[in-house]
Design brief:
This protein is an alpha/beta fold. It contains 10 helices and 9 strands. Strands 2-1-3-4-5 form a 5-stranded parallel β-sheet, sandwiched between helices. A two-stranded parallel ribbon has the order 6-9. Helix 2 links the parallel strand 1 and strand 2. Helix 5 packs across helix 7 and helix 8 runs antiparallel to helix 10. It is globular and about 50 Å long.
Length: about 375
């Protein structure tokens, strides 16, 4: 796609200022909810908007393992509906994330179990989650050595080849590809891109790689594929902190729009593929869009600031000092905040986003 020269100049700024901490991950509790009976299997790929346990717990807890520690999971509710606060499940939120809500649309209780938490050579009837926090599509994306989208598909492909994932399971399967912007963060290969052609080519490379992986999923027998577009990254607290959480960064949102236009072009000719419009669903809430967006925004008193905020702009939610002192604060009512931490929505935030997207998702999944 041809980009206007002034837009490309803005995109360069976007690529350099997006949160260097990357996107992260999260898993399901060992004693998690029992799955409802469903005819669908869900296979989840991507990054922390969908990861529910593939990144491991570490000692001490670090920025890439904080999803296993307080205050993550602080709004957890067990299978009987009883609150179980302080039950981190590996998700980067206070309870459920995007893949959990998509699983609900398919008749499941929550997202399928993480590959890392599943017994070897088995696959749950509900499917499996291969997504890893911090992942992107390009090898240069992550400094944390997490599997790229293609590497996640390699694991899936081997399980299909070995018969662990059966043809019957694939015949009623839905895949989610959740790529949320790690390929554009400042710790990636975007550093050093200085010309419009280089930037344009890089964006095209990212979206083409997503499209190629979607093709691979379909060749392996997945019947329906959901692909996230990029949310308005300029509205995440990591970007709004400099304005005291009062305004979105127009450069970040413009960069997301360019990515999304490219993604739309490479996806529009594909059958049985649906682009999940996170950009519009998020914007209706956090960017004060007119009409429906304003109504959705009203339930959140804080739309651009995080419920869990680190004292240091380079710190993170859940961070502790050398003497175990807390280096962050947590809000009292997470349901009034759209964002949980510097990058990720709260349970209430995801619920509001997915409420907007549920109808088109159901229509797509149900169509022949």
């Amino acid at each position: 796609m041809k980009l206007h020269r002034t837009v490309l100049g803005v995109i360069l700024l976007v690529l350099l200022v997006l949160n260097p901490n990357g996107v992260e991950a999260r898993p399901t509790p060992a004693d998690g909810h029992q799955k409802k009976l469903s005819s669908y299997s869900l296979f989840v790929f991507g990054d922390d908007f969908a990861d529910n346990g593939n990144l491991p717990l570490t000692d001490p807890v670090t920025q890439m393992s904080r999803q296993w520690a307080y205050p993550y999971g602080s709004s957890y509710v067990d299978a009987d509906g009883n609150p179980r606060p302080n039950t981190p499940s590996g998700r980067f939120s206070n309870y459920k994330i995007q893949s959990d809500f998509i699983a609900t649309v398919l008749g499941l209780e929550e997202a399928p179990p993480a590959h890392a938490l599943t017994a070897e050579k088995t696959c749950d009837p509900s499917g499996m989650t291969f997504a890893h926090g911090g992942a992107g599509v390009l090898e240069t994306t992550s400094a944390h050595k997490v599997p790229t989208l293609a590497k996640q598909l390699d694991t899936f492909k081997k399980m299909v080849k070995d018969g662990i994932i059966s043809e019957k399971q694939l015949s009623r399967s839905v895949a989610l590809v959740a790529i949320s912007g790690n390929d554009y963060h400042a710790n990636t290969g975007v550093i050093g891109l200085t010309t419009p052609n280089d930037i344009n080519a890089y964006i095209a490379k990212v979206t083409k790689e997503i499209a190629d992986n979607v093709d691979q999923l379909q060749k392996l027998g997945v019947t329906k594929v959901l692909v996230n577009n990029l949310h308005p990254v300029g509205c995440t607290p990591s970007q709004t902190r400099t304005s005291n959480y009062t305004a979105c960064d127009v450069f970040g949102n413009l960069g997301a729009s360019v990515h999304n236009n490219n993604l739309k072009q490479v996806m529009e000719a594909k059958k049985n593929v649906h682009v999940v419009d996170l950009y519009t669903a998020f914007s209706n809430i956090v960017d004060n869009a007119p009409g429906k967006g304003q109504e959705l925004s009203k339930q959140f008193k804080r739309k651009l600031s995080p419920c869990c905020e680190s004292f240091d702009s380079k710190g993170y939610c859940g961070q502790q000092g050398e003497s175990s002192e807390l280096l962050y604060t947590v809000c009292d009512k997470s349901s009034k905040f759209f964002y949980w931490d510097d990058m990720h929505p709260t349970h209430a935030g995801w619920e509001a986003v997915m409420k907007q997207l549920e109808k088109p998702l159901r229509e797509f999944v149900d169509q022949d």
